[in-house]
Amino acid sequence: MDTSSFRSFTPREPHTGTPREPAPPTPFISFVKPQGQLYNYDRHKPHKDQPVNIPKGFLDAMSVREKVYVEEQGVALENEFDNDDHRSCHWVIYASVNETISPAVLDPQTGALLRARRSTSTALPIGTIRLVPFPHEAHPRNGGIYLNGVLTNVGDPVRPRSSETVKALEPQEIQGGNRRNSLYIRDFPTTFHNGQEPYVKLGRLAVLKEYRNKGIAGQLVRTAISWMQTHYTVFNPSPTVLGFDRLGVDVTGQLPKWRGLFCIHAQEDAVKIWERYGFQVDDKMGKWFEEGIPHVGMWLRVEVGKGGHTVI
Predict the structure, then answer these.
(1) How many angstroms separate the Cα of 171 from the Cα of each of 43, 165, 166, 184?
(2) What's the whole-model pTM score?
(3) What is the pLDDT of residues 217-231, one digit of tens each?
(4) Are 93 and 29 in contact (CB under 8 A)?
């Protein structure tokens, strides 16, 4: 976990007169890089009962997700953690919350301060977002019902398949639905995706109930988008790592590169929220259900190589 964004908080103590109220929460965001040591994360247990080698930043993200998705929305605990978590970037936003250890003591006759209030500051995780690199599974089927990422109504006539769709889905179905080992994405085209262009996926946006409508979600979304704009090559395959240089093969221009395309699988009730940040609903993706919750696809394209959220 990168803790460079943590700030030190010193509670203010009154020197004279009436003690001050605790300072309002001051949000700050921490980046949690992709983790390789989540293989022993037990999806059947809450974040507080996980092995000690799980990074604290990721556990903080899960604490918010459990509150929002598991407790509020009824998602099964074992389905909240998924196979994308270990390879994803996470951001966690914290509030510095002052807690009183002992109250101030005033002279009952004069009102003079006899003992200052003692307090401590706690970094409370209040929101999180996740960014999943490419490649991804195929776009969800219109009318599909997914549990823990698995399509459960495979045999149902959820959508008549065109010849174009059948051709695009063949590689996925032959390989059991997992195409992440492939560098090349082949999917059915949608309104905003041609079925081939690499894209990154935002999701797991969650903010604790008592901190909503305060701009927290917007801070998280803008931070993730801006980070990707300035780190736009970080997920591109390396010819050296893949061994093409040893083979003397020039693959320049042939390997997939991210060119500014974001996707989200948005809960239907959250469409208006994502539209605030420039995302547009993809009508050709239709609607499907994840953990019993209706979802739609939304897309955003941004400039790469620049900081800040610049939509093009």
Answers:
(1) 29, 11, 10, 11
(2) 0.75
(3) 999 999 999 999 999
(4) yes
